[in-house]
Specification:
This protein is of the alpha+beta class. It is built from four helices and five strands; from the N terminus they run ββααβαββα. It has a single domain, classed as Transcriptional regulator MraZ domain (Chemotaxis protein chec).
C-alpha cells in the first residue's frame, strides 16, 4: 500500500485526509504524473506534493496501517480515523475533518462541479 497526501486541482492538501493506493493503482498514477510536462509549474507542484510525500506503508500484526509521522501530522490524525472507499483508492480521514466535510456536503455548501454531473444517473 502507498499512502500520500490528498490534493485538489490547485495542488492544495485536503485538510485531514490522506490517500491510500494499492500498489498497482499507485503505479498507474505515477505513470500518469510522469507524462506531465516538466516545465509546467503546476505539474511540478503536483509531482513534489504527491510523489514527494508518498510513503510505502505496511500493516502490523493486528492489521493496523502504520502511517509515517509526517503524514499523520499533515492530516492531523490522532486516534480516530475514517476509511472511505473511492473506487481505485481509499481516503483516510481525521474523524473530525470527515464529520465537518460530511456536514458541508449534506448542507449543500459545496456545489463546485455540479453541472458536470448533470448526465449521471443511478
Amino acid at each position: 500500500m502507498i499512502v500520500t497526501v490528498a490534493v485538489d486541482e490547485r495542488c492544495i492538501g485536503e485538510d485531514g485526509c490522506l490517500w491510500l493506493y494499492p500498489l498497482p493503482e499507485w503505479e498507474k498514477l505515477e505513470q500518469t504524473i510522469s507524462k506531465l510536462p516538466t516545465l509546467n509549474k503546476m505539474a511540478g507542484k503536483l509531482r513534489r506534493f504527491v510523489i514527494g510525500n508518498a510513503s510505502e506503508c505496511e500493516m502490523d500484526g493486528q492489521g493496523r496501517l502504520l502511517l509515517p509521522d509526517k503524514l499523520r501530522k499533515f492530516a492531523h490524525m490522532d486516534k480516530k480515523c475514517v476509511l472511505v472507499g473511492q473506487l481505485n483508492k481509499f481516503e483516510i480521514w481525521n474523524d473530525d475533518a470527515w464529520a465537518a466535510k460530511e456536514k458541508q456536503w449534506l448542507d449543500g455548501d459545496d456545489n463546485e462541479g455540479l453541472e458536470e454531473l448533470g448526465s449521471l444517473s443511478f
